[in-house]
Design brief:
Helix 3 packs across helix 7, helix 8 crosses helix 9 and helix 9 packs across helix 11. The protein is of the alpha/beta class and 356 residues long. It starts with 12 loop residues before the first helix and ends with a helix. The strands form 2 sheets. It has a 6-stranded mixed β-sheet, with helices on both faces. A 4-stranded parallel β-sheet has the order 5-4-3-6. The protein is globular and about 65 Å long.
């Protein structure tokens, strides 16, 4: 098995895992040195569920989310094909990643976002990297439909997860987990929105096992928000609603990849409520010192629910993927805490306020 690597020696996911990726000798590698994110032991969460839990902190990627893993491959292949512009639909993280990697590649970038349904931190990233951002009076699924049609009407490359190069790059998260643990975990918990990530992780675990890099495959547990749970409900949700904006998707592009990952691994895709997501969000920040965006916390909310039902073997190794950084959605973070009032700039006022 490979050993953990230091950031100084890290070359980005393409160079580290080139043999598993659709990259040729002449592919211009567009990278921000993504990947190599922490796999953090979660002591208090482990105690709570009776398992050995690790948090895969994807908010440590360059633009603050897991999307960078796939974007480096998608953008490199777009550059190889001679593209001059890329386009995506996004609830936020894809737009931030696409804009940054397009700027790195010297390509134009257009982004379609659902009006009023994108966290400000993510919107700011897309704009500051120079993307052309259009707000669509509709939801993500409608924006993605427009993007897919646009590819046939204009000289652009779609870099959503319908692009297979995105899925290929996102497999590297599974590779890193195995490299650090020495084998695949018994259980892998992950949020499910557009469903590309659970699809990618499962393919990654399969690829590593086929290559002899691991001896087992994990049980894949995917979690949708209850107000945006089309896979759980078995039908498209026309107006998905959840506080977890990154997974507010009613018709996942990788629907069948996700169900395949769950069924082939002996896992499941279930739903968690917004209340459960927010409870996990606060627990991670207060007890594990990890500030993630709300959608990320769906993986931990799901683990807590699954463990409460007795479906997590005692002592099992469990990995929860935290897909994005908490600063992606500062408005939500502020809504969950009390902002203190100002005090006078004297010691008596400070001591009184601290009640010491």
């Amino acid at each position: 098995m490979s050993s953990p690597r230091g950031r100084a020696a890290w070359r980005g996911v393409i160079e580290e895992y080139r043999e598993f990726l659709p990259i040729g000798d002449d592919t211009p590698v567009v990278t921000l040195l993504e990947g190599n994110t922490p796999l953090l032991p979660a002591r208090r969460l482990s105690e709570r569920v009776g398992a050995e839990v690790f948090l895969k902190i994807e908010g440590a990627n360059p633009t603050g989310s897991f999307k960078d893993r796939g974007m480096t491959v998608a953008m490199s292949k777009a550059a190889e094909a001679g593209a001059r512009a890329v386009v995506c639909a996004s609830t936020g993280n894809t737009s931030a990643s696409a804009a940054a990697y397009a700027a790195r590649a010297g390509l134009a970038c257009a982004v379609l976002i659902p009006e009023g349904h994108i966290a400000l931190g993510k919107l700011a990233q897309a704009l500051v990297h120079g993307a052309r951002v259009l707000q669509v009076r509709g939801n993500f699924d409608e924006a993605l439909g427009l993007v897919r049609e646009l590819e046939h009407r204009a000289p652009v490359v779609v870099v959503n997860s319908v692009n297979p190069h995105r899925i290929a790059g996102q497999m590297t998260g599974a590779f890193e987990i195995v490299d650090v643990l020495g084998d695949a975990p018994e259980v892998h918990c992950i949020p499910v929105g557009n469903a590309g990530n659970i699809t990618a992780y499962w393919r990654g675990y399969l690829s590593y096992k086929e290559a002899g890099r691991s001896t087992r495959l994990p049980r894949m547990l995917g979690f949708q928000a209850s107000g945006a749970a089309p896979i759980v409900e078995g039908h498209v949700v026309e107006s998905p609603e959840t506080i977890a904006t990154a997974i507010r998707i009613g018709n996942p592009a990788s629907w069948y990849g996700a169900t395949a990952a769950a069924s082939e691994s002996g896992g499941a895709i279930t739903a968690v409520t917004d209340a459960e997501i927010l409870a996990a969000y606060r627990f991670l920040a207060e007890e594990e010192s990890v500030f993630c965006e709300a959608a990320s916390a769906a993986s931990v909310a799901g683990l807590l629910s699954t463990a409460a039902a007795g479906d997590v073997p005692g002592g099992a190794r469990v990995v929860c993927v935290l897909t994005g950084h908490g600063l992606k959605d500062p408005d939500l973070a502020i809504s969950q805490v009390h902002v203190p009032d100002a005090v006078d700039a004297d010691m008596a006022s400070v001591l009184a306020a601290l009640d010491v």
